[in-house]
Specification:
With 689 residues, this protein is α/β, with parallel strands linked by helices. It has 28 helices and 21 strands. It folds into 3 domains: 8-137 and 150-160, no CATH class; 188-285 and 415-551, Rossmann fold (3-Layer(aba) Sandwich), CATH 3.40.50; 559-688, Rossmann fold (3-Layer(aba) Sandwich). Bound molecules: adenosine-5'-triphosphate. Adenosine-5'-triphosphate binds next to helix 4 and helix 6. InterPro entries: DNA_helicase_UvrD/REP, P-loop_NTPase, UvrD-like_ATP-bd.
């Protein structure tokens, strides 16, 4: 296009983008040169680490560097972008997370916040391809209006073909989403939102916002918990694109370093083992392992020394104060070494006194006092250094170590959990006989519900001395990932409705300050627990000390498909209504009845047609678990999964196979609700007659 025929707004924004790109390129080149220099010392190494972070941030910011502009009523303008840039000490581009950028997401015609116009700038690489202006002095919307911000840019983004990876939404975040992204992070926040309302979008952008706003949070890293490795892969590219590296992504199954899930389990067993009451069972079992106060007889240099029960009781009380089993054991062992050293010193003193008395007797009998020897010269007391040396010898002594081990054995969480899971007497204190039978009948390899129990036990037991060298790594995330007791600055839980109470505990254990954002849809819950409300889901772990927020607009699923979801939601026992769809795709959902024998062939044909129709995009197939093997054989590498596995994912078109079969699965109506809402454009259904 000739520059003369291009609208002025395009030229203006292209010039600005060119200037911003040039600035970014010069900064990148400067940093690259600095990073090529060898670091001479620790200070320089630290500086280089910081520069590398800045360099990475700049490097990644190439795509979508500038995406917005605000024109204020006072005539000033502000460009908003993926990162902040300065030129000659003057602000050039404002980072989207900075307070100054907020009106870009929240100003409305009713509340223009001093702004006259909002402009969305769409770019491809270094070229401006679209400019959408939204006057903020226009007449406010009417009833039923969704109050969208930058509607043109939003709808264009939503209509894009899906790539199989999530993309960022920094340029089109909506007001209700932005409120959550920038919410205060001092306590637990639980966000309820129906399918496609942008819960994942909000959760990930919140991470980027928090790390930008609270710089010290990057030193502790942020943990993002998702439902499956497939989901983590789906969101994996968003976080680096948002410019953050201090993030650890995990599932509840991969959160405990060194332990992996080795088998599937029954829903009944998973439900029982997910209950909060296990904390009590585990605590009681660990407490019972601590030795009781009794007199101890210890051998040193061939002599027995007695430590009275009162002294042992005192040592136990002070050792166990709020400490884990192994920490308390270490403190108790030190005290025992001290008590033994004292007993040895005392015995030696008594002995010396006796010797001295005998010596004085002899002296008096031979009536020769010419030596001048007196009691004070040989009082037998050990000096402080001698006592210290004795304590060290005791601490290093293998026999004493064996004695302490027999009294207070070191334990590993795995062995102890295996013992607990067959301890019918202990289990019967909290479970019915049938529940005890279910738990004790489970095979030994670890199942998913064992991980939170192992984690709780690992915390109660604590690290043994010398165990677990602290993981090393250049970035905080590398160090945090390998360390069970790492304390994160913030924890984000996605698909939080799936967490059992014990999994909630495991998540919260990683952030004692309770700076947690959990997003989910209680109506999509399929996991083996009984929660039908957030209050119920978190009562045992958070009480009522949490804040609720809600997302109400569905961005993913078109209105034609959302219309099918109301009855399914009602069948799932929900009293909620599905979220309102922001757009229509113009494609009506279709349905075809096939016989079981014809199903594989028809499914293969339907997938091929959908792939042709949505060329350049993605197609996914959802089916009941029982039909997956026969379908896999004909569908090749098309994403094929159960409703549960499809949670959090999306494709341009979904082929839903045997909806009745999905409904018949445990919590099947919830599963069908998930399955129906995965497409951004088209839904095809094959029913089996
Ligand atoms: N403000 C936005 N701008 C652009 N795209 C958006 C926005 N909000 C959501 N989306 C898009 O809508 C789709 C659904 O978002 P997301 O996956 O976060 O929803 P969700 O609530 O987690 O859904 P579900 O619970 O069904 O998994 C995604 O493609 C996301 O990129």
């Amino acid at each position: 296009m000739h520059r003369n025929s291009v609208p002025t707004s395009f030229i203006e924004e292209q010039d600005f983008l060119d200037a911003a790109m040039a600035r970014r390129d010069s900064l990148t080149a400067h940093l690259r040169a600095e990073l090529e220099l060898d670091a001479a010392d620790a200070v320089e190494l630290g500086r280089q680490r910081m520069l590398r972070r800045q360099y990475e941030e700049l490097r990644r910011a190439g795509e979508g560097l500038v995406f917005g502009r605000l024109d204020a009523t006072d005539g000033s303008t502000l460009h908003i972008g993926r990162i902040g840039l300065h030129s000659d000490d003057e602000p050039l581009l404002v980072d989207w997370r900075a307070p100054a950028a907020r009106p870009f997401y929240t100003a409305t015609a009713v509340e223009p916040q001093g702004q006259k116009r909002r402009r969305h700038i769409r770019t491809t690489g270094s070229v401006v391809v679209g400019v959408d202006d939204e006057p903020l002095s226009a007449t406010p919307g009417h009833d039923g209006d969704l109050g969208l911000v930058g509607e043109g840019a939003l709808l264009a983004a939503l209509d894009q073909r899906r790539t199989g990876h999530m993309t960022t939404a920094i340029s089109t975040l909506q007001r209700e989403q932005d409120d959550i992204v920038r919410a205060d992070a001092t306590g637990p926040l639980i966000v309820q939102g129906g399918p496609g309302t942008g819960k994942t979008v909000v959760a990930l952008h919140r991470v980027a916002y928090l790390l930008f706003t609270y710089r010290q949070m990057a030193d502790r890293a942020v943990l993002v918990l998702g439902p499956s490795p497939r989901f983590l892969d789906y969101i994996g590219q968003v976080l680096p694109a948002l410019g953050e590296t201090a993030v650890v992504a995990a599932t509840c199954d991969t959160l405990l370093p060194g332990v992996t899930v080795e088998r599937a389990e029954s829903r009944t067993a998973a439900e029982i083992k997910g209950r909060a009451l296990w904390q009590g069972i585990l605590e009681r079992r660990v407490a019972a392992l601590t030795p009781g106060p009794r007199e101890l007889k210890m051998r040193w240099d061939g002599d027995f020394h007695v430590i009275p029960a009162t002294a042992v009781a005192q040592a136990l009380t002070s050792a166990t104060q709020g400490r884990s089993y192994h920490r308390a054991r270490a403190v108790f062992a030190e005290q025992l070494h001290q008590l033994l050293a004292d007993a040895i010193a005392e015995q030696r003193e008594t002995l010396m006194e006796e010797m001295e008395r005998g010596y004085e007797d002899i002296l008096s009998r031979i009536a020769d006092t010419s030596t001048g020897a007196s009691r004070s010269d040989v009082d037998g007391l050990l000096s402080e250094e001698e006592l210290e040396e004795l304590r060290e010898r005791i601490a290093d002594n293998a026999t004493i170590a064996r004695f302490v081990e027999s009294l207070w054995p070191t334990l590993d969480p795995g062995t102890l959990l295996r013992e607990i899971l067959v301890d019918t007497e202990l289990l019967a204190t909290e479970l019915t006989p049938a529940e005890v039978a279910t738990v004790t009948a489970e095979p030994a390899p670890w199942a998913s519900s064992d991980i939170p129990l192992l984690d709780a036990l690992a915390e109660l037991l604590g690290e043994r001395d010398g165990e677990q060298p602290r993981p090393q790594g250049e970035f905080t995330a590398d160090r945090a990932r390998g360390q069970r007791d790492w304390v994160y600055g913030h924890v984000v839980v996605d698909e939080a409705q799936e967490l059992s109470e014990m999994q909630w505990r495991m998540a919260l254990r990683r952030c004692p300050s309770r700076s947690v954002t959990a997003v989910g849809d209680i109506d999509q819950a399929e996991a083996a627990h009984r929660h039908t409300s957030w209050a119920q889901a978190v009562r045992a772990v958070l009480g009522d000390r949490w804040t609720a927020a809600e997302l109400t607009i569905c961005y993913r699923t078109p209105s034609e498909v959302m219309e099918l979801t109301g009855p399914v939601l009602a069948l799932a026992g929900s009293h909620n209504t599905p979220p309102r769809a922001v757009r229509s795709s113009g494609v009506l959902p279709w349905q075809l009845a096939v016989t079981a024998a014809d199903l594989p062939g028809v499914a293969a044909q339907a997938v091929q047609e959908l792939q042709q129709r949505w060329e350049g995009g993605t197609v996914g197939v959802i089916a009941p678990a029982s039909r997956i093997p026969e379908l896999r054989a004909v569908l090749g590498d098309v994403p094929l999964m159960t409703a549960t596995q499809s949670k959090g994912l999306e494709w341009d078109a979904t082929l839903l196979i045997d909806a009745d079969g999905i409904s018949a699965e445990p919590r099947g109506h919830n599963g069908l609700y998930v399955a129906l809402t995965r497409c951004t454009q088209e839904l095809g259904r094959l029913t089996v007659s």
